[in-house]
C-alpha cells in the first residue's frame, strides 16, 4: 500500500493494488488530495472468468454507491461497448442517467480499451409481444454505427394488443387497509372484497367488487384513491365491470382525478393510463371480430380520449424522463391504439361504430414521436432516461400506424410508391409537434412537411445509431427507417 502515499497525476486517475487477498481499485481525488477506494476488482484477462448472475465476465467490479446502500456489482467483458455496459448497470440498479459518463469512463480506465470480438456476435430475434423472438445482446461491432436492420416484417405491423396485468396485491391491500382506517366514510366490505381479488373471479364477483371500489372513488380524497384505480384497471377484463367503470356515472370522476386534474397526480395518472391500455386489450379483439354486434361503448370512450392523451405527455408535471413506469404505460396505450387503428383499417365498416378510429394512426405517430424526441435533446445519455421496453413499444406503434396507409391498395402499389406515401403520412402527422419552433405560416405546405420529415428521420436515426441504446431498440428503429428510405 506504499504507493498510496504518492499523489495522483490527474483527477480520476485509477490504480489497482493487491491488498491481502483482495484486488482493490483506487481513484485519485484532486479536491480531497487522496486516493479513494472504489471497490474490488474481480476477474482478469486470464482464462479464469468472474461470475455474475450465472454468466462469465472479464471483470466484475464491486462498487459502493452510498454509505446506506449495499455494494453493487458492475460486470464487464472487454468485447463490450463500455457505454452499453454502463447503461445496463444504471438501468439494472435504477440509478440516475447522470452517472452514465462517470461509469463508462470508469470502465474504460480500469478495464482498458474495448477489444474487438473474435467473430461477429450472433443475434437471435424473438418478438416479446408475439412470443417468437427476443433480441439477445452480444458483443457489439465497431464497424457499423447501427446493427443491420431486420426485415420490417419482423416487427411491423404489430397486431397483438398488450395487457398490463401485473399487480402487487399484498402492498395494495396494506395501503387500502391504512386508508380505510383514515377515512370513516369507506364502503362496507371494501377490504374483504379486495382480498378476494384474482383474475379468476366470476363475472358477478368482479362486478360486485367494481361497484364497491367505485363507491369509494366517489367519496375518497384524490390523494388516496390510487389503490382503487390499481384494482379497477385489472377489473376491465370483465365486460360488465368494464362497462360500469367507463359509464357516464363513474368515468368523469376517474378522469377528473387523474388525466385532467390540475395537479396531474402521478400515481393516479399512471394507473388510469394502464386502465385505458387494458380496455383496448380486453375489448379490442372482440369488437374487431364482431363490430356489428359487440358493445363498443367502452372503446368509444377510450378512442375519444386519445387526443387528450397526446397532450398529457407534454405536461411539465409528468416528467417523462424521470418516470419509467409512466413511459411504459404511455407506450403501451399508444401501441394498442395503433393496433386498433391498423386492424380497423382492414375492415372499413368498423369506422361507422367508432368514427374516430380513422384518426388514430396520425395521432399515434404524433404522440410517439413527441415522446421519442425527448431523448435526443440530452445527447447519447438521453437513452438512459427511457425504459428500453417503452422505446421499443413506441417504435412498434409508429411502424404499425404507417401500415394503415392505403391498406386496400397495398397489394397493387410498388414498394417505392408505398415509401413515398409513408413519408408524406409521417411528415403531415409530425408537422404540428416537430415544428413548434418554426413559423410554418411563412412556409409552403410542401416545405413544412419536408422539414417535419427531416426532423422525424433524425429522431429515428438517433434511436438506430446511438450505441447506448439496446440492440433490439436500435434494430427496430433501423427497420422502421427501412420502411421509409
Automatic annotation (TrEMBL):
What are the coiled-coil residue ranges?
none
Keywords on record: Cytoplasm, Repeat, WD repeat
Protein location: Cytoplasm
Q: Where are the transmembrane segments?
A: none
Superkingdom, taxonomy of origin: Eukaryota
Determine if Repeat is one of this entry's keywords.
yes
- Pfam family, any one: PUL
Domain (PFU) spans 27-121
An MF annotation (GO) of this entry: ubiquitin binding
Q: What is its main location?
A: cytoplasm
Q: Where is the PUL domain?
A: 154-441
Q: Name one GO biological process term.
A: proteasome-mediated ubiquitin-dependent protein catabolic process
List the GO terms this entry assigns under cellular component, sorted alphabetically. cytoplasm; nucleus
Q: Which PANTHER family match?
A: PHOSPHOLIPASE A-2-ACTIVATING PROTEIN
Instruction: Name the chain's protein.
Output: Phospholipase A-2-activating protein
Which organism encodes this protein?
Fasciolopsis buskii
Amino acid at each position: 500500500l506504499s504507493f498510496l502515499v504518492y499523489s495522483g497525476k490527474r483527477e480520476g486517475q485509477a490504480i489497482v493494488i493487491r491488498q491481502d487477498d483482495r484486488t482493490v481499485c483506487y481513484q485519485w481525488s484532486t479536491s480531497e488530495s487522496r486516493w479513494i477506494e472504489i471497490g474490488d476488482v474481480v476477474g482478469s484477462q486470464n482464462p479464469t472468468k468472474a461470475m455474475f448472475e450465472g454468466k462469465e465476465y472479464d471483470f466484475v467490479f464491486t462498487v459502493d454507491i452510498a454509505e446506506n446502500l449495499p455494494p453493487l456489482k458492475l460486470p464487464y467483458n472487454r468485447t463490450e461497448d463500455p457505454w452499453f455496459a454502463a447503461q445496463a448497470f444504471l438501468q439494472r440498479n435504477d440509478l440516475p442517467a447522470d452517472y452514465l459518463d462517470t461509469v463508462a469512463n470508469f470502465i474504460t480506465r480500469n478495464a482498458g480499451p474495448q477489444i474487438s470480438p473474435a467473430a461477429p456476435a450472433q443475434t437471435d430475434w424473438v418478438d416479446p409481444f408475439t412470443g417468437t423472438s427476443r433480441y439477445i445482446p452480444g458483443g457489439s461491432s465497431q464497424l457499423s454505427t447501427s446493427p443491420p436492420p431486420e426485415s420490417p416484417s419482423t416487427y411491423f405491423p404489430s397486431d397483438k394488443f398488450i395487457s398490463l396485468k401485473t399487480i402487487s396485491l399484498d402492498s395494495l391491500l396494506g395501503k387500502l387497509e391504512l386508508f380505510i382506517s383514515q377515512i370513516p366514510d369507506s364502503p362496507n366490505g371494501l377490504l374483504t372484497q379486495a382480498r378476494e381479488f384474482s383474475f379468476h373471479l366470476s363475472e358477478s364477483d368482479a362486478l360486485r367488487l367494481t361497484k364497491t371500489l367505485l363507491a369509494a372513488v366517489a367519496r375518497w380524497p384524490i390523494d388516496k384513491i390510487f389503490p382503487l384505480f390499481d384494482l379497477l384497471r385489472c377489473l376491465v377484463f370483465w365486460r360488465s365491470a368494464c362497462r360500469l367503470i367507463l359509464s357516464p356515472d363513474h368515468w368523469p370522476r376517474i378522469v377528473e382525478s387523474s388525466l385532467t386534474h390540475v395537479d396531474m397526480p402521478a400515481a393516479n395518472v399512471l394507473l388510469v393510463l394502464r386502465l385505458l391500455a387494458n380496455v383496448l386489450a380486453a375489448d379490442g379483439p372482440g369488437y374487431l371480430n364482431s363490430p356489428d354486434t359487440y358493445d363498443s361503448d367502452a372503446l368509444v370512450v377510450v378512442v375519444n380520449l386519445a387526443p387528450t392523451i397526446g397532450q398529457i405527455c407534454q405536461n411539465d408535471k409528468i416528467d417523462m424522463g424521470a418516470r419509467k413506469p409512466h413511459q411504459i404505460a404511455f407506450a403501451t396505450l399508444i401501441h394498442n391504439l395503433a393496433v386498433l387503428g391498423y386492424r380497423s383499417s382492414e375492415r372499413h365498416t368498423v369506422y361507422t361504430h367508432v368514427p374516430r378510429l380513422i384518426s388514430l394512426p396520425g395521432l399515434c405517430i404524433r404522440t410517439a414521436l413527441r415522446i421519442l424526441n425527448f431523448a435526443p435533446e440530452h445527447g447519447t445519455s438521453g437513452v438512459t432516461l427511457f425504459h428500453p421496453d417503452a422505446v421499443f413499444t413506441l417504435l412498434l406503434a409508429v411502424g404499425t400506424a404507417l401500415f394503415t396507409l392505403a391498406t386496400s391498395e397495398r397489394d397493387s402499389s410498388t414498394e417505392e410508391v408505398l415509401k413515398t406515401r409513408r413519408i408524406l403520412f409521417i411528415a403531415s402527422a409530425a408537422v404540428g409537434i416537430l415544428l413548434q419552433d418554426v413559423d410554418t405560416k411563412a412556409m409552403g405546405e410542401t416545405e413544412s412537411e419536408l422539414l417535419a420529415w427531416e426532423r422525424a428521420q433524425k429522431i429515428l436515426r438517433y434511436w438506430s445509431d446511438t450505441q447506448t441504446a439496446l440492440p433490439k431498440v436500435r434494430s427496430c428503429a433501423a427497420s422502421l427507417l427501412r420502411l421509409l428510405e
